[in-house]
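User: Before I run my own analysis I want an independent prediction to cross-check against. Here's the chain; please return only the structure tokens and, at the end, one sentence I can use as a sanity check.
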Amino acid sequence: MLVFEKYGQHQPLNRQTERFAREGVELSLSTLADLVGHATVALQPIHALIETHARAAHRLHGDDTTVPLLARGGAKKARLWTYVRDDRPWKGGAPPAAFFRFSRDLAATNPDEHLAGWQGMLQADAYDGYNDLYRASREAGAVTSALCWAHARRKFFELADIAGNICKGKPVHQISPVALEAVKRIDALFDIARESNGLDADARLAARQDLSRPLVNNLHDWLQEEHAKLSKHNKVAKAINYMFGKEGRWQPFTAFLDGGRICLTNNAAERALRGVAMGRKSWLFVGSERGGHRAAAMYTLIVTAKMNDIDPQAGLADVIARLPEMHASRVHELLPWNRKALSLDEAG
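Assistant: Structure tokens:
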């Protein structure tokens, strides 16, 4: 209950101690912190198995978000990273999972470490820190990049959001017609993607070859033509540069046209990070590096449980109760997707 309230319901330990005190239960903050630490250590075997399962995928979603880290002189901007395996859009069959990592900064050495030895396709934003993974000389082999159309669309949408700009006091004539047209063209790709969501990989690939590829080719030529008319300082030009600005970037954006297993966006990773973004408003900061690593471990367990339709608190309680007497060779039975299968068998 403590760890789920802290990481799943965004209730920091000081609030939990106050609540317990109102109910007549006196528990110190240090006692609760110790219990969270004990739970994190006890659940480490499950965390490790989830990460191993996720890393076995040929395709991962990757993303990160900021977390303030308490430090001398004020909070520093640390990071929580997530890597998500989710094959459900193309009926892949493998259970979905997400593992998290904590770091003190945004350095490129972090994804290098997190995905050391892994090779496959990484769906992410255009953050340069992933570039070392894409090097042909990488010891484990180059990772293939697939970039996110939601990120590209967002840059145009901010320049074409009529209602939003009016709310900000900006006149309608400041809305960019080029950005608005770009949003419409990208939305047509999203419409096709929604129609093929849930189909098998071959059917998704066929739809992309027949329907999406002509739209992408037309979008490419149109964006090039419009970019040539704009000043390099124009905001729309900068939005276009996000897709073309660096050599070879257009290819990762169009990777989805050649594979039915590839997603159009990196939304799977952004959904996994949603709880962290919500929690920041409540717990405000991470108290130490150790606390950041604990948070990463617990988010791994809670988010993966939710992805597999398992109640996180009930699941954690059951795992903590069973794990001490479980033989090492059977620990995998406590993974969320195996527990779900077991529950269905028992219900039958």
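Sanity check: The radius of gyration is 23 Å.
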